[in-house]
UniProtKB/TrEMBL annotation:
It is found in: Cytoplasm; Nucleus. It comes from Phyllostomus discolor. This is Cryptochrome circadian regulator 2. Residues 556-567 have a biased composition (Polar residues). Residues 22-151 form the Photolyase/cryptochrome alpha/beta domain.
Length: 613
């Protein structure tokens, strides 16, 4: 998909100024912003009338599994967009229905001659858009699409990689390093532009085309707490300013405390951005977090990219920023590229890059995990925060994903995708599914003997246990010594804490030490079977059991933010259900990592991309 694609209608519409100009509809989907919106600018160009439309299906809202926090964020984003359009003497038209039913009516009712929208790279979106473009062509409507949700042209990346998506981050980096830099963001539409193409606004606009409330969509709001993340472009841009200012101030402190030299200043800035320090406060929602705003397109990824670029240049003059500096955005691009031509990317069956691991069907364990009732306070606190606020830190995501899949419960990553898709504000098709395949060792990542401990990992991050007390108040009376494993607390301490394990709080759902050993052995056998079909001996040096459960192991040097390792991740051997099918070989043979002694207790896996930017 080129950065700009124009599909002409059978009968080309007039595009001149004044009364002979186009009657345009700009269709908002993601991209809920006025800044860096080239498709919106295309709607305005030479038009006599522009209507900004969002299509919302009330039936889908009531029947979908998307949770109330995501719907609230979306509605807030639409309200903010409508407020911004009012300042330009326009309004947002929220049309009820499905696109295939809505557009034929709108084309006739409004005399539409041009339809513009942002290109959607995800398989469902491409299928939907192809149907609408066909419908528009038949109606004599010009269609203009613009790519602004990703930094790069994903089809071009695939083309440069031999017509297949790169499945290692190292290979992905090599491809984009040969490409031109991402296009710079375009300016926002102005009031002068909108005044030249006014839309007719009826007095009953709010009743007919207003943004609905949660109650109108069938969501009960009684007991719903205040939004931790306020949706909308206005909030996104304010957060971006705070985000970059915080990085700048942090560098001034660290860089100048070490040395007054420009080199030290530069090193401190890069280090602070690529490897932020992890502590208990990191687990809480940050007022500078950006991931939901990138997901809904309230914030342009290109604006973020070049604002970051400009700040780097102020620190390190006349120097080109390293790719690793943009790791947060590039990991997003990596997964978008892997998913764009794979409609089965979010499931095992029919997914050519996914190892077909025989996961257990355990709906009871899945429900306890999703509801934060596993008996492991670290895991339960994370899932409680996710359900309440719609966001968790990326390392917390790693912990609960590993626990559900290969670490402890041996439940399919597909179930985790569905739960995150319901609860996470920033969940989308590509990054959500890609992250789950990674963490379950079903694709992209093969170091299955790296396992997060549901006790030790949390204790190292937050030794006091205040995070657990915040989200699991029933455990607040336990001393820090026992709060990560309250089942080991003497009965007297449990009584003093007014929380009896097995009565007021569940016992652990599994014995982690034993279960993780068993699951690592399972993964080893699966990989050995795959390696035989590939004619390789991938796991000859991997031990048959796990040891050193009590001794902490140093974390790998790869960035906490993800995506900054120079080597990048190695892919898993891939294959559909039958192992006799051709499996794509890894780009690089397994190295010393596979010969290391497998450890479980406190060894985190190399980091995934961070979505809590």
């Amino acid at each position: 998909m080129a950065a700009t694609a124009v599909t002409a209608a059978a009968a080309a519409p007039a595009t001149g100024a004044g009364t002979d100009g186009a009657s345009s509809v700009h269709w908002f989907r993601k991209g809920l912003r006025l800044h860096d919106n080239p498709a919106l600018l295309a709607a305005v160009r030479g038009a006599r009338c522009v209507r900004c439309v969002y299509i919302l299906d009330p039936w889908f809202a009531a029947s979908s599994s998307v949770g109330i926090n995501r719907w609230r964020f979306l509605l807030q984003s639409l309200e903010d967009l409508d407020t911004s359009l009012r300042k330009l003497n326009s309004r947002l038209f929220v049309v009820r229905g499905q696109p295939a039913d809505v557009f034929p009516r709108l084309f006739k009712e409004w005399g539409v001659t041009r339809l513009t929208f942002e290109y959607d790279s995800e398989p469902f979106g491409k299928e939907r858009d192809a149907a609408i473009m066909k419908m528009a062509k038949e109606a004599g409507v010009e269609v203009v699409t613009e790519n602004s949700h990703t930094l790069y042209d994903l089809d071009r990346i695939i083309e440069l990689n031999g017509q297949k998506p790169p499945l290692t981050y190292k290979r992905f980096q090599a491809i984009i390093s040969r490409m031109e830099l991402p296009r710079k963001p375009v300016g926002s539409v102005t009031s002068q532009q909108m005044e030249r193409c006014p839309a007719e606004i009826q007095e009953n606009h709010d009743e007919t085309y207003g943004v609905p409330s949660l109650e109108e969509l069938g969501f009960p709001t009684e007991g719903l707490g205040p939004a931790v993340w306020q949706g909308g472009e206005t909030e996104a841009l304010a957060r971006l300013d705070k985000h970059l200012e915080r990085k700048k101030k942090k560098t001034l402190v660290d860089g100048h405390s070490n040395s007054s030299s420009n080199s030290s200043y530069h090193s401190a800035w890069v280090a602070n951005y690529e490897r932020p320090r992890m502590n208990a406060n990191s687990l809480l929602a940050s007022p500078t977090g950006l991931s939901p705003y990138l997901r809904f397109g309230c914030l342009s990824c290109r604006l973020f990219y070049y604002r970051l670029w400009d700040l780097y240049k102020k620190v390190k003059r006349n120097s080109t920023p390293p790719l690793s500096l943009f790791g947060q955005l590039l990991w997003r691009e990596f997964f978008y590229t892997a998913a764009t031509n794979n409609p089965r990317f979010d499931r095992m069956e029919g997914n050519p890059i996914c190892i077909q691991i025989p996961w257990d069907r355990n709906p009871e364990a899945l429900a306890k995990w999703a509801e934060g009732k596993t008996g492991f306070p670290w895991i339960d606190a994370i899932m409680t925060q996710l359900r309440q606020e719609g966001w968790i830190h990326h390392l917390a995501r790693h912990a609960v994903a590993c626990f559900l899949t290969r670490g402890d419960l041996w439940v399919s990553w597909e179930s985790g995708v569905r739960v995150f898709d319901e609860l996470l504000l920033d969940a989308d098709f590509s990054v959500n599914a890609g992250s789950w395949m990674w963490l379950s060792c079903s694709a992209f990542f093969q170091q299955f003997f790296h396992c997060y401990c549901p006790v030790g990992f949390g204790r190292r991050t937050d030794p006091s246990g205040d995070y657990i007390r915040r989200y699991l108040p029933k455990l607040k009376g336990f001393p820090s010594r026992y709060i990560y494993e309250p089942w080991n607390a003497p009965e007297s301490i449990q009584k003093a804490a007014k929380c009896i394990i097995g009565v007021d709080y569940p016992r652990p759902i599994v014995n982690h030490a034993e279960t993780s050993r068993l699951n690592i052995e399972r993964m080893k056998q699966i990989y050995q079977q795959l390696s035989r079909y590939r004619g390789l001996c991938l796991l000859a040096s991997v031990p048959s059991c796990v040891e050193d459960l009590s001794n902490p192991v140093a974390e790998p040097s790869s960035s906490q933010m993800g995506g900054t390792s120079s080597a990048g991740p190695r892919p898993l051997p891939s294959g559909p259900a039958s192992p006799k099918r051709k499996l794509e070989a890894a780009e690089e043979p397994p190295g010393e990592e596979l010969s290391k002694r497998a450890r479980v207790a406190e060894l985190p896996a190399p980091e995934l991309p961070s979505r809590d930017v």
